[in-house]
Amino acid sequence: MTLTREDLDFIGAHEPDLPLCGGIGAEIWRPAGFEQSIRHLQIMEKLGYQNWGFTEQTQSWTFRSMWGLLPDSEYVPDYEAFYDTTCLIAAAGMQTTKIRFSFTTDCYRRPPSVMAQTLKTLDQITRGRVDVLVGTGENKQFLPHGLERTLPRIKRLEEYVRIVKGLLRTSEPVTIPGEFWPQQDALLGCPVYNSDAPPSVIVVGGGPATMRLVGRVADGLSSYLPGAYANIPEAMAEDLAIMREEAERVGRDPGSIPVGAGNTVVLCENDSEITRALDSPYIRGSVLNLTPTGEHWKKWGGEHPLGDKYALSMTHRSTNFSRPELQDAFAKITENDIQQMIYVGSPEDVAARMLPWAKVMGHPQVPLGYALDFGAAVFPEHRELAEDGLPRWHHLQLRFAAELNRLLAAS
């Protein structure tokens, strides 16, 4: 699929908005309207990006009070103005043909029967191009809205995955025992688009209990790197060994369980941009939340400015902290702290740092979009067009993927 003159003209007219940053942006409302999000995704498809992942948010992982400090606030007035991602996937699915969509959500806000019906519907609309990533959620999506993340979370997540998968794989009445959502003669008559390839139900998370859950019932595992493992590939390898051992124990082929991640990076064109990225309030705000808890910072000798108990899933709210309070916290973050959670550098340098993770996850080669590049939020000039009429951020992605694939082939 090639870009038309109309596509290039659209990119030229809307380059300040395409994309917001990495895999984030199409799901956030902008004054240009919903149609721009659809056009954005059509162009990503034509550029060769194979997957687009949405996060089902009501509040983001950063802080609302600092948004006005960034150039993007001119084009995206409110970083918290999220569309419902399932509606966006439905609309985009009808106007694309190849790109595959996924959304990350939790096992609480939609009961498993509702989730299965949503997935069957999206699967029909997209003609088999949708998956779901599900975890135990974050309090920022619950407590502000009077919702609860009822204990026990991991046990609920496992039952949730088992029931959703069971409902996806039949259009006949089915009984699925359960402690939390027992299905009695449950009927979702709508079939999936391709009965041999229903939507994947992938689990998001880490730790031994989650790994055993994935080994038993999930269609895959997802995480975010390098922060989820404090920049220690060996720690992820230990988790994956637990997952694979459990899969073998229950008679599953461990090699049939794919492992993926959102790989958070800032791809830079020169040393000056590296300095700017390390000083960026967006990057400093993001790293406050890109490890499971503040205590993880101690693994590289850091000290979380908001304390050891600070956690994205438990204590974070995007509405917390005034701008002066955040700026005080940002000043305590070191360059080393940032580089442990977001790889900042040239595409070639970042690819070299990402190589151990790709090998741990078992990826023999990587596609475009393997890097979740925050650079487009830091450097507005990356959305300017190169001589071929394509954005500079896209050329950085091409360099990153090419170098990482070269390193994988040579290793």
UniProtKB/TrEMBL annotation:
EC identifiers of the protein: 1.-.-.-
Molecular function GO labels: oxidoreductase activity
Organism for this UniProt entry: [Mycobacterium] vasticus
Keywords recorded for this protein, A-Z: Flavoprotein, FMN, Monooxygenase, Oxidoreductase
Domain of life: Bacteria
Top EC class of this enzyme: oxidoreductase
Pfam families reported for this sequence: Bac_luciferase
Domain Luciferase-like: 33-358
Protein name: LLM class flavin-dependent oxidoreductase
